[in-house]
Amino acid sequence: DREIIQVTPRTSFITLTQDRPDYLAEAIASVEAQTDSDWEHLVYDNGSSDSRVIDVLRAAKVRNPDRFFFVSPGVRGPVIPALYWNILIGLSRGRYVTILDDDNRKHVGFLEQMVETLEADATIDATTCGWGYIDEIGEKREDRQDCHWNLATNISNLYLSNTIDSNAFVVRREVFDRAGQFNAEMPACEDWHFAIRLTRACRVKHLADVFVDHREHPGTRSYRISRA
């Protein structure tokens, strides 16, 4: 019998989506544009009522049949991102994992720079980067400065404020065995909670570059909280 060799991707992108077809298409396109093409992208559709979401997912599957995968049970579950992130982490095959919210984008050099740092030093467990702000239509917000809070991140700072955006890190897959996955019992701040545990259990390298576009629009939790 011939030996079957299964090739696994270097990095897994994981995305939770719900009723944001246009933003989702941009997020997927930002993955497809990566200069490091050794990736897979896993998307969980949390019961979208907009049929265009499935159209976007199916089109991405056609373009990337061997490295784009989606789960769409057709039933809307609880709005707990950690629950679905954990499901996708369990399905992922990559040596590294990174979150991409369905309304955000990764810059084309995100993987190349973030993963290269991890590949060059086996003692580094995760990398983070800076992020910039875009508006509802994807234009850079000139009134908002790029965010580099992660450069000053330590345990003391993390206890006071969430200084690492969940979209701005890449984590070695085995780190989840040490730090644990996301706490699905938390309805909010699950990424903050994970960042604290990650920093306590692992070595994190902070890069000064901006490699993530963070979209601000009325549908985000942070947008609603900031205006409450």
* Overall body shape: globular
Helical residue percent band: 25-40%
Annotation field: number of helices: 8
Strand content: 15-25%
For the sheet with most strands, the description reads: 8 strands, mixed
Q: How many β-strand stretches? A: 8
- Residue stretches low in confidence (pLDDT < 50, at least 5 long) are 1-5, 223-228
Report the span from N to C terminus: 65 Å
Rg over CA atoms, rounded to whole Å, is: 17 Å
Q: Which structural class matches the secondary elements? A: alpha/beta
The pLDDT mean sits at 92
- Strand arrangement in the largest pleated sheet: 3-2-1-4-7-6-8-5
Order of helices and strands: EHEHEHEEHEHEHHEH
Topology:
Blueprint: E1 11-17, H1 21-32, E2 39-45, H2 52-63, E3 68-71, H3 81-91, E4 96-99, E5 105-106, H4 110-120, E6 126-134, H5 155-160, E7 169-172, H6 175-179, H7 190-201, E8 204-215, H8 221-226
Parallel strand pairs: 1-2, 1-4, 2-3, 6-8
Antiparallel strand pairs: 4-7, 5-8, 6-7
Helix pairs in contact: 1-2
